[in-house]
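[job 4417] fold queue: 2 targets
>>> target A
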Amino acid sequence: MSEVSATGDQVLEFAAEAAANGAEALLVLPASFQDDGVASVARGERLLEIVRDSGLRLVGPGTVGVTNTAPDVRLNATLTGARVLRVCRAHAQRPRQLVLG
């Protein structure tokens, strides 16, 4: 997964680069392309074109990120500073996960 935290045309450049390098997913953190009207609509359409043509999975724009608390993954691709910790409970058969913000 490639994570993009850029604005404007840089998002498109990073998306095209991720696609060219074989990324399977793209996480776009900026809220939107709605900074300059018509140009932002064109950027959004171009991003969708890049994603669809390359088969990338897209999360965003406008997401806080992605977290997976599975013990074998423990993925935290967010800007929140959350930590994924392992928590054991006496009644649990296996360890559980807890995300702290």
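>>> target B
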Amino acid sequence: MAKEELAKELILNTDGDGDGETLTESDIATLHAGLAIPVGVVVMLAIGIPSGYFECNGQEISRTTYSNLFNVIGTTYGVGNGTTTFNVPTISSTATVYFGGIKFAIKS
């Protein structure tokens, strides 16, 4: 399915075959992969974390491997081990309002 069709179906909340099924996580991951979302943007998801994103759970990640993200956020959310890693933000679904099952992810 083309990205434009996926976007349209996302709005309609169907998978396009007329049977009323919703988009799959794979469909949505494909759509996200095709969007020009800048590095460092935090998104709210009701699905699994797509490739190219990190869950906003404070985890340490490599400064070298994810240098694009490190160049954007630096050590704002934690210095990691102080030399080779840094932390992504910690944002929970209860941070402002409870959204059951919602996850926050940062584009890497």
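[job 4417] complete. Note on B: The two ends are 25 Å apart (CA to CA).
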